[in-house]
Amino acid sequence: MDEKSFTEWSLKAAKWGADYRASLRDRPVRAQTAPGAIAAQIPAQPPRTGEDMQAIFEDFEKIILPGMTHWQHPRFFAYFPANAAPVSVVAEYLVTAMAAQCMLWQTSPAATELETKVLDWLRQAIGLPEGFSGVIQDSASSATLSAVLVMREKALGWNGNKKGLASQQQLRIYSSDQVHTSIDRAIWVSGIGEENLVRIPANGPRRAMDCQALEAAILRDKAAGLVPAGVIACTGGTSTGACDDIAEVIRVAHAHGLYVHVDAAWAGAAMICEEFRELWAGVENADSVVFNPHKWLGAQFDCSAHFIRSPDDLVKTLAIQPEYLKTHGRDGIINYSEWTIPLGRRFRALKLWFLLRFHGLEGLQTMIRNHVRWSRQLAERLAEHRDFEIVTAPMLSLFSFRHLSEGDPDAHTIALVNAINDDGRIYLTQTRVDGRVAIRFQAGQFDMTQEDAETAFEVIVEVAAALDGQHEKTKASR
Ligand SMILES: *Cc1c(COP(=O)(O)O)cnc(C)c1O
């Protein structure tokens, strides 16, 4: 591509992006495509000769766009958000254009030094004390895997990487039964093994890990000759927002010399608001904390902030220094690739810098407080409606509910979720609470307004009534 076309198509892409964002409210949130419909439009063989850019771009709009689910849609209430604030998109344009591989300080000093600075801004923003060092991981899953590897190496006297696990003592890791599946994966991949992830029951309104049961399990394992290595606590579990009592988990864990990792992938963003910090009270004593600025905060995916007490332990676990990576005579500088599992690193700090400067903490706090308020208001309206019940009360901006109807409640709930998402005006997902299906609602999209929350209420009530109407009809025609 020559310079002139590169300019032309770059400008076109940027303009397209802005128009796309402006058009989101008129699009169905979830892709309305049948499985295979997109693939069927893509030729089986690669092109032998280059194609015209105009044709490629037109196919993007014609074939690809209809198969997209619009994560930046203001009425995206499914999963957790993956917000990309416009200002972070602008930063990503620049990062994409420079396309630097920032694995070492010397492969882009600005990327490393800005990362250190903005992660320290974030540390302060969420109220973590000095003494935590931050690094950007590609995902919370990677941060958790890194933390589990540190647990493993510390518990094995740094012999796991060296000797493998076959000749080692059996390690044990503890978490509640509310944690994200990334914890299971970290346990598998680290070689610790699923049977050594001890699930401690969670209870109470916050579905917090039972810390007496935690301590009993640790003592039982020690007595049996097993080696307790660490605890993974959660603030804001994925299903219903479960929050462990972090202070108590850490008290128990540290009394037995265990490493504590706190997974606050979604809820961590809310900690920029002081009033929510009681949800993770005690976090200042954790060994490792992860939260995703790429979820609620607005930093374009991917961008996961990992804070650790002892970077030395992390580097001792993950650093490899073959000759070609040595940066001679530059002691004391940070090479962040030694803090993460992949060697290669994108320049992720720039979008955080742009985001925090453009919106300021106050702008982001207002967004999060609005989401929490609108979500609570919606939960109240559904609770007052005789056809609905709240299954789990709002935790920050996340709650779950059910529509009361005749027949099999799980089948009805799933049918309602599908009908709502087929309608297209809003997008929701389901979860399982105490064995039964419930509809999950979270408010969190960057451009959401109070009106969008009101639309959500109207759509839910309307689609549920229509579904009941259909049941009545099928019954009558039998
Ligand atoms: C989203 C989420 C994760 C996984 O985050 P990735 O960055 O996609 O790996 C882990 N834990 C919790 C609680 C989450 O909400």
From TrEMBL:
**Short name of one Pfam family:** Pyridoxal_deC
- Can you tell me which residues the record assigns to a coiled coil? none
**Cofactors that this protein relies on:** pyridoxal 5'-phosphate
Q: Which PANTHER family match?
A: GROUP II PYRIDOXAL-5-PHOSPHATE DECARBOXYLASE, MIP05841P
Protein name, UniProt field: Pyridoxal-dependent decarboxylase
Q: For this UniProt record, give its keywords in alphabetical order, as a comma-separated list.
A: Decarboxylase, Lyase, Plasmid, Pyridoxal phosphate
Q: Which organism is it from?
A: Ensifer adhaerens
Q: Which InterPro entries match?
A: Aromatic_deC, PyrdxlP-dep_de-COase, PyrdxlP-dep_Trfase, PyrdxlP-dep_Trfase_major, PyrdxlP-dep_Trfase_small
Q: Which family does it belong to?
A: Belongs to the group II decarboxylase family.
